[in-house]
Amino acid sequence: MADEESGTSAHQDQNVAELQQHPTHNDDTNGEVKDKEQVDLSKIESTKSIAETLPLGREIVFVGLICCAQFTTQVGLGQCLGILHVIGDSYGLSNPGELSWLIAAYSLTAGTFILLAGRLGDVYGYKRMLIIGFSWFSLWSMIAGLAVYSNHVLFTFARVFQGIGPAICLPNGLAILGASYAPGPRKAMVFAIFGATAPGGAVVGATFAGLFRLAWWPWTFWSFSITLACIAVAGSYVIPEPPKKFAKTITLREKLAELDLLGGLCGITALVLINFAWNQSGVVSWAKPYVYVCLILGAIFVLVFLFIELRVATSPLIPFEALSTDVAFVLACVACGWGCFGIWVYYIWQFYEQLRGVSPLLAAAMTAPVSVSGAIASVTTGFVLGRLRPAWVMTIALTAFTVGTILIATTPVKQSYWAQSFVCTIVIPWGMDMSFPAATLILSDAVAKKHQGIAASLVNTIVNYSISLALGFGGTVEDHVNHGGTTPGDVLLGFRGAWYFAIGLSGFGLFLSLIFLAKGYWKDRKDQRNGDDTSEVSHN
Predict the structure, then answer these.
(1) Which of 124, 137, 305, 517 is most buried, by the most CB atoms less than 10 A from its CB?
(2) More confident residue, 251 or 265
């Protein structure tokens, strides 16, 4: 069927080319044929998407390669999370705050640089930036493994730059999907599949880390680097070129204005400073002046960024005209839910390895159910997105985040895995895989095709930055309630303190989603009342 459609499209392109070669037609019949061809082609262009013109086999491979952007992002998170203490021991690190940086540093840049990376895709092409992103990701994954010959500073530095890879890949991969599919059930399902790869990626990353750790842990990163390089090469051949934002070549000055480098610099600086302050507070506490100085400077840069975006930039990084109250509600819910998830996933691994004394490989097996449950949740989301209000989807997602975290926060150390621990790994993916595709689809449909990179950037910025920032919050809470963490009981107290904070985050997000839901019903009722009044006036 797809081959027939592709052949039909090629035949019509040929007809149009022939008509363009003979622009003058004295015969009325030829003129009618020309008009008919133009009408038919216009109709097809308005109903067919790029992806639908591909042969089915190539479309499957194309979507699979795009999904690798999400999959490998979570591999990068899981591969370090699974062997965190193994890596820490090789560098002589034992402070929980220093160890958390090995995770937070990656999520920091993965969330911070997405805003600018999405705009780079708008200007230079989504496919080109996606290939660059995979290549960059591969390079710094290799360096992260080579850091074993140096010290933890180089490893942390490599993790920081490693995170820029997914920051480039995620928005541009999603932008390609957004530009390649017309709004509808097919697009909703593709976005759901994209989100479904996240839990599986984290589990695969942790599993292979546990396996390579039996030999030598740097092979975790070297093998990942080789895989990413292969994906970059395959993507350059398989992924079609989506429509470009600019039909003609623009000058360097126009490119600089379109990139909004000043706004991007201020925004990135603000996010880095705020995140650094909260995560560093878990290492040296707030007693150090530079910690709260960074927080204050970050707040100042936020104000400068908003001023530039609203008053100065000709092409602001964030399309504020697309940020309706509905979109703002969705992004706030996503921030709360994924911040909760960041704390949940970090501390559940510490709970398994430190308090239950299991190996990294067994801990990966214990978290493996999230991949199966996540896949089911994503497919379900793909079906219900067009049938349920977005507010209902977000409400269900925030409920899953909250319930899943409550289950693990109240789990006794010696309790059977199949009780609360197993159940929470089944519940939590429904929060992840309902909120992400819903938010991405809402923003993708809310902005024009030329802003697809920006729409994807916003969601991914919120997701990844929330994870990193919440780890700083959770670490601060842990440090203040664990009495130094000298006994297993104190360590558990610190973990639960962080989880209780996460419950508060997701609970607040649930509250926002309920307001969002009520607001939608109130608007429908108001519109119906106005429609009835109009109908009555017209009748009279």
Answers:
(1) 137
(2) 265
Residues 6+ apart with CB under 8 A from 537: none
pLDDT band at residue 15, thresholds of 50, 70 and 90? very low
Digit-coded pLDDT (tens) for 437-490: 778 777 766 666 666 556 666 777 888 788 888 888 888 888 889 888 889 999
Residue 228 has pLDDT above 90, yes or no: yes
Range with the poorest average pLDDT among 38-47, 331-340, 388-397: 38-47
Q: Are the C-beta atoms of 282 and 476 separated by less than 8 Å?
A: yes
Instruction: Kindly give the residue spans of alpha helices, DSSP state H, lying in 239-324.
Output: 252-259, 261-284, 289-307
Q: Degrees (nearest 5) of the Cα angle 169, 347, 497?
A: 125
**Confidence at residue 84, expressed as pLDDT on a 0 to 100 scale:** 87
- In this structure, the number of other CB atoms found within 10 A of the CB of residue 246 comes to 13
3-state secondary structure of 320: helix
Exposed, middle or buried, 372 (CB in 10 Å: 0-12/13-18/19+)?
middle
Span between the terminal Cα atoms of the chain, in Å: 54
In one-letter notation, the amino acid at residue 534 is T
- Identity of the amino acid at 403: V
Nearest to residue 41, comparing CAs of 13, 62, 60, 64?
A: 13
Domain boundaries, the chain: 51-260+314-525, 261-313
Does 51-260+314-525 carry CATH code 1.20.1250.20? yes
- Listed residue (474, 473, 498, 493) closest to 483, CA to CA: 493
pLDDT digits (tens, 9 = 90+) for 126-140: 899 999 999 999 999
The C-alpha atoms of residue 503 and residue 136 are separated, in whole angstroms, by 36
**C-alpha–C-alpha distance, residues 264 and 258, integer Å:** 11
pLDDT of residue 245: 60
The better pLDDT of the pair 453, 419 is held by 419
pLDDT at residue 220 tops 90 = yes
For position 147, what pLDDT does the model report? 92
Q: Which residue has the higher pLDDT, 398 or 453?
A: 398
* DSSP state for residue 51 in the 8-state scheme: G
Torsion of the alpha carbons at 232, 233, 235 and 240, rounded to the nearest 10: 130
- Spatial contact of 475 and 279, defined as CB atoms under 8 Å apart: yes
Rounded CA-CA distance 275/270 in Å is: 8
| Three-class SS of 83-123 | CHHHHHHHHCCCCHHHHHHHHHHHHHHHHHCHHHHHHHHHH
Q: How far is residue 297's CA from residue 101's CA, in Å, rounded to a whole number?
A: 21
pTM: 0.77
Q: In angstroms, rounded to a whole number, what is the distance separating the alpha carbons of residues 203 and 365?
A: 8
